[in-house]
Amino acid sequence: EVESMVVQRRGLRASRSISSGTLLKREDITVLRPCNGETIPANKLNEVRGREVAHDIEEGVEILWTDLLNP
To answer: How far apart (Å, rounded) are the C-alpha atoms in residues 16 and 53?
Structure first.
């Protein structure tokens, strides 16, 4: 049942390569399945927009809270 939940949940991923210091915009982020335990879940999208990226993130890579600087 837990495995099914992970597969069904959606998480945030980089829709393009994002450079360190970028302030995230909606077009930088895509929402895809699955969402593992460390990926930021889709329902947190509004909390992520406008946050500064701590380091480069490659296209398609899951976005984690540790990828973002504190607001």
So the answer is: 13
Single pTM value for the model = 0.86
Per-residue pLDDT of the chain (71 residues; tens, 9 = 90+): 455 554 579 999 999 999 999 999 999 999 999 888 899 999 999 999 999 999 999 999 999 999 999 87
34 upstream amide cis, omega within 30 of 0: yes
Q: Which helix (H) or strand (E) holds 8?
A: helix 2-8
**Quick count: other Cβ atoms within 10 Å of Cβ 8?**
10
Cα distance from N-terminal residue to C-terminal residue, the chain: 35
